[in-house]
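Let us walk through a complete example step by step. Step one is to write down the protein sequence. Step two is to encode the small molecule, pyridoxal-5'-phosphate, as a SMILES string so that its atoms and bonds are unambiguous. Step three, shown after the inputs, is the structure prediction itself.
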Amino acid sequence: MAFSRFGQFLTQGSGIVQLMDDLGSAGDAGGDICMLGGGNPGAIGAMQDYFRNAMRTLLDDPARFDAVVGNYDSPHGDARFREALAALLRRTCGWDIGARNVAVTNGSQSTFFVLFNLFSGAYESGPERQILLPLTPEYIGYADAGLGREIFTANRPSIEPVGEDLFKYRVDLNALSVDDRIGAMCVSRPTNPTGNVLTDDEVDALRDTCRSQGIPLILDCAYGTPFPNIIFTDAKPVYDEDLVLCMSLSKLGLPGVRTGIVVAAEPIIRAIGAANAILSLAPGSFGPALMLDAIETGDIIALSNDVVRPFYHGKAFDTVAIMRQAFEGLPYRIHQPEGAIFLWVWFEGLPISSVELYRRLKARGVYVIAGEHFFPGLEADWPHKHECIRVSYAGDAGRVRQGVDIIGEEVRRAFA
Ligand SMILES: Cc1ncc(COP(=O)(O)O)c(C=O)c1O
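Step three: the predicted structure of the complex.
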């Protein structure tokens, strides 16, 4: 069967398709797999209890339950949810917003598809525009949002060694060049894959650059403030009409409900609503309905700060300790853990590519993600891209230890 160019693009293979396939097949295989590859959040008992109670409350209100599953929401999402979220953000962050500044999507992955196409490609006048990623490595899921068009341009970070075996990427502000070929900038904060949290100063510098060019700065807050707040440094939540904030319920523990949230200026919210209508009529109602009480009461903030963040903070530093044992004597550095649910490990001078390391690990039942997928838009080849892997520490601690030990063995074999 012949496919159109669109079909050929979809089926040619890409990092995010491989990642989600691995996640699915590891789930199906159960048993002996160490899944350190995917972006599934950890199973946090207190969060699971909260979600189950929220579900019972919904079921115990038959009129509400019937409305939730029996009607399409508006293309911008349920009005009560949007109003409640705007009120929460006004209360907790002091932002001057209303429901008009909030849209719901079917997960933030779909938000990015729309936003990147809203701000790249041909405009009414001027040259074609691209999305600038001011710091790579950056989230693998962005890479194919142009459906085959090269919509990204990206910068390398500067690398700052920290102590014996850590390092930190910083935005290379001197290399930042923004002109009329850039339609928007985007950063994830915390960054997937590295767990880097851009400092407030870095964010302010990017905001200034975007404002002076009249383009939006898209901040991907999938792990960020104010929820799920998987951030181990001080990071100020920021919003104004020059920013587009993308949030999600996934990393609180609800990836299955596929709920993304956009907070932005009204024209952008209208465009998101139009895209929802065209692509899927309406966003799913279930996630917003399940979390409405948590948002109205503010529980979502308390749960993020008191349950979700400490859970990942503990796991991050436990996993660093495990890595220090497993990688002893190897030329490794770990990106300073500042947030999100991953560790990014750099094996300087790795004699095989990170894709080959991924393959060898997969053959032993350990799933990680090869580093080179995380540099969308970075044209020049850079050995560093092939020397890093992303390791998720969200899963079962025993599996993480087993997987990290096997990574140590395979890397040692590669260097031998
Ligand atoms: C940085 C980042 N942004 C966006 C997403 C997409 O999240 P979702 O579509 O589940 O809301 C993810 C998922 O892993 C992510 O890591």
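Step four is interpretation. Residues 39, 107-109, 139, 141, 188, 192, 220, 222, 248, 250, 255, 260 surround pyridoxal-5'-phosphate (CB under 6 Å).
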